Amino acid sequence: AQSVTQLDSQVPVFEEAPVELRCNYSSSVSVYLFWYVQYPNQGLQLLLKYLSGSTLVESINGFEAEFNKSQTSFHLRKPSVHISDTAEYFCAVAGGYQKVTFGTGTKLQVIP
Amino acid sequence: DAGVTQSPTHLIKTRGQHVTLRCSPISGHKSVSWYQQVLGQGPQFIFQYYEKEERGRGNFPDRFSARQFPNYSSELNVNALLLGDSALYLCASSLEQFSNQPQHFGDGTRLSIL
After folding, report:
1. A100, A104, A106, A107, best to mutate vs chain B, most B CBs in 10 Å
2. Does the distance separating the beta carbons of A102 and B44 come in below 8 Å?
3. What are the start-end ranges of the E strands in chain A?
4. Which residues from chain A sit within 8 angstroms of residue B103, using beta carbons?
5. Do B99 and A105 touch (CB under 8 A)?
6. Can you give the pLDDT at residue B74?
7. Digit-coded pLDDT (tens) for B22-79
8. I want to staple A76 with a disulfide (CB 3.0 to 4.6 A). Which of A16, A21, B85, B86 is the partner?
9. pLDDT of residue A97
10. Sorting pLDDT into bands at 50, 70 and 90, what band is A36?
11. pLDDT score of A98
12. Chain-chain contact of B42 with A99 (C-beta, under 8 angstroms)
């Protein structure tokens, strides 16, 4: 069985400040890890993924996440947030035939 | 290219009724997965279909069923609707069935049960 824990349901942060959204997972098999973003009234969009190789992965819009196997974590970070980053962020773990398990989500609220 | 399209966007039903939700994957994608997202929670996996065969099933009752057609589009059926079935139903497609494939989501069908 696999599970994902997102410790923070809401994270308020001022514009241009750094942010970290936490994600921990558990699994008995090798996993792939993902972060998805969901804007209001929309589906989920892939932000970044870890499949193998370098433990630090980056997205095109400045987010990065680091896979830490010993701590079973995949935290999402951005050094300077923008108003447009306000959304809900979901961490997900997948193994086997693409049975994806999502966390409960973290709402990022960027304050002007 | 068009993204994943789902229909209808909104639906209101009453308890005991039946509903069919439809999904068209991105062109060339052979795998379709269905998720239920209850308000305030993350999506929960319902089914995965690949090449018209069921490849995975989540912890949902037999009232939930699905199928995939030769053109890779898919339908999700829910019978004997309950109030607890009110949710956003998301469809996602990917090129292949494997778990390292990122999924592309549609905007969902919001189902409300009265």
Report:
1. A100
2. yes
3. 3-5, 10-14, 19-21, 24-26, 32-38, 44-50, 56-58, 64-68, 73-78, 87-95, 99-102, 106-111
4. 44, 46, 98, 100
5. no
6. 98
7. 999 999 999 999 999 998 889 999 999 999 999 989 999 999 999 999 999 999 999 9
8. A21
9. 59
10. very high
11. 52
12. no
CB contact under 8 A, B100 and A45: no
Structure tokens at B73: 């589009």
Q: Which residues of B touch A99 (CB under 8 A)?
A: 45, 48, 56, 58, 99
A5-16 confidence digits (pLDDT tens): 999 999 999 999
Residue with tokens 């929670």: B41
Q: Dihedral sign for Cα A88, A93, A98, A101, please.
A: negative
- What are the CB-based long-range contacts (under 8 Å, 24+) for B44-52? B44/A102, B45/A99, B45/A100, B45/A101, B46/B76, B47/B76, B48/A97, B48/A98, B48/A99, B48/B97, B49/B74, B50/B96, B50/B97
Does A32 contact B99 at a Cβ distance shorter than 8 Å?
yes
Is A46's pLDDT higher than 90?
yes
Q: Kindly indicate the confidence band of residue B100, based on its pLDDT and cuts at 50, 70 and 90.
A: confident
Bond before A18 cis per omega within 30 degrees: no
Note whether B42 contacts A34, CB cutoff 8 Å.
Answer: no
Chain A residues in contact with B100 by the CB 8 A cut-off are 32, 51, 94
The whole-angstrom distance between A78's CA and the closest CA on chain B is 21
Residues of A in contact with B41 (CB under 8 A): 104-105
